[in-house]
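Q: Joint fold for the lines below.
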Amino acid sequence: MDENVLQGIRVLDFTWLLAGPYATRILADFGAEVIKVQSRKTTTGTESNVTGYFNTWNRNKLSITIDMTHPESKELVLNLVKISDVVIENFTPRVMANWGLSYETLKETKPDIIMASISGMGQTGPWRDFAALGPTIQALSGITYLTSFNRGSPVGIGYSYADPVTGLFAALAILAALGYRTRTGRGQYIDMSEYEAMCSLLGPTILDYSVNYNLAVPRGNTSEYMPASPHGCYKCLGDDKWCVIAVFTEEEWHALCRTMGDPTWAKQEKFSSLLRRLEHQEELDEFLGQWTSNYTPEEVMDMLQEAGVVSGVVSNAVDLANDPQLKSRGFFIQLHHPVLGNTNSDGTPIRLSRTPARYRRPAPLLGQHNRYVYKDLLGLSEEQLRQYIEKGIIS
Amino acid sequence: MAPEGKDTALLAGLRVLDLADEKACFCSKLLADIGAEVIKVERPGGDAARWVGPFQNNTSHPEKSLSFWHNNTNKLGISLNLESKEGRRIFLSLARQADVVVETFPPEYLSNFKLNYEVLSRENPRLILASVTGFGQTGPYKEYKSSDIAASALGGQMYVCGAPGAPPLRPYGQHSYYIASLFAAVGILIALHERNLSDRGQHIDISLQEAVVATLEHVMVRYFFEKVVPRRQGNLHWTNSACISPCKDGYILITFNREWETLVDLLDTEGMAADLKEERWREEAYRRQHVGHIIGVLADWTNTHTTADLFELGQLLRFPWAPVCSVGEVFNSPQLRARSFFIPVDHPEISASFTYCGAPYKFSGSYRNKWRRAPLIGEHNAQVYYEELGLLPEELAKLSSENVI
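A: Joint structure:
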């Protein structure tokens, strides 16, 4: 039991792209049997089983194929539902219902089933059918507007942040529902909105509006919730090399000054208190940037951390791959994939002392586990399997 | 059987002690919002997170921090000085009755007061301890100081946010704290599941840095599989097929890949397609290479419309377009309103009720009727110390005079 924490939990996984697969990857990393339901017709582009993108989010999972447009597929899926604990999907709201796979139907088949539906807007409301990708959600949530150096030009986040965030919330919801089922014997339906997931991460800012009518504006790299100065990103030695420095207390300010060799500019009255430094932020940043530009970001970080000041390297992908801290903790993992060869990906940040995540296998090839799932788990005979294949239901 | 009574809460019966500051008080909030009994254990005078803004009426005050309000809903609050001998003893008796402890101290801190995992688990072998720190419990940086901007930088977030040629940019808010809290909460539920089998707890080690790296979507994938080092490209999506475009009254996020031919026809009907009708633009690879020109033509077109018009039009065509919203627009969103995402939370001590963000999921089988505001400093001392631990009023008075409580 020590090896596979979630052993015995079977997840029928209809998800694609990122939010859903991110949730089921967490479950699979800790030993749940995640069966990815795929169709030869839709596994193109990034959903192709042999892309790096697919491989990264689908390790430790099994793959079966089924053509959901075939009229006999529904019954086959319902038989799989009977032997599953969780069904998860992230289509737009109509899709599962159109296949005859609404929660009501699943519940008739397996009363204690847990079904989780993830969608951009949630299963209800005037926008329920709206199309949404990560950046769509980020724009709607306020984070895109707020992430900028000035009001006139929204920048936002350089990746689909909303997807992993939603995947995390979904994993949490499913695990909570599993615990509830253990206690009460009851399953349930989870309606998860990606839009709401992103908004809930801006909770204090939204409260500031609802309580004080303050309309938050972009703040660049300044500290929006706690006064800090200096607090920002500074140019270092090298091409596109940067570090960050954050000073919250007078003690830290003096430590920073000492590390810089107590330059005369830092002794000026206008930098003598947090309040005054905040008033002269731009000038302070200029001075500080002149100092940091003499060093590599690693040098700045080491010097300042040694002195007890928060500082860090602005890491790019190469820096991350070689980061001494991540390396020492073995954060990136390697798995051998039959087509892609040795593949690297991020491990899980969830580190359990006694039952750590296990990286057992790379992402599956399309339909790789058809025989295991349909024959060994579901009990189809060789003949039945052959018929399903001939009809094009399993391909 | 209809769910009813206390049992309807998803995590009913789960007891969590929350020692976390602003780095992870969101973790036990996630658990409290779905029914766990969370006791926030603050140092006398209140946790440092009470000084994180913004503040009600824009005035710094430990009972008016809106960050604290948001991150501590549905928790009970007691005060306790862990660094005193008596405080430690009281904490251990609380820990004996708890399922989970969440903490954010520097790695050696709890050992110094003999409250580390080994000690706690000797008192209560079923206890799960979740530690959230800047860099984790091990490794060369474990003693380094962190904050959201450091985690954002060292986690690879900032390097890919911002405009080319401009400095890296930190996303607004304290995202490393929220993501790390989510990972910690998921880890806690996994450990609880495992405990059903083994009857033993364990120690969960969460690093803010790792939490950020784990949410970078394409960044490490492209590096590992294509040897590409993603860089900042402003509001142009990394696939070069979506961007933010100016409108008459704001900005709209538009996509222009799968949508291409419909989009060009649309522009053409308004006489604004410029040269985009030419054959070469039909090729996706060509478009990606000359995306600057496309953005220019699209901006000329979007500038003649309002964000609302383009949002409606785009969604009618099943394009994932959306306006770039301010917090006010989020607050008034018809979709969020229709789903009752925002919920009223009473603050009886000031005879007020405020609107909070709710949880992003709806469970058919269980629900929480009413949300309770964050605890005031030491608000539930009497309840916890008298009723739970059976202390006498004179004992409590003594502890209070010794600054233990």
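Q: Anything notable?
A: The first helix of chain A runs from residue 19 to 29. The first strand of chain A starts at residue 10 and ends at 13.
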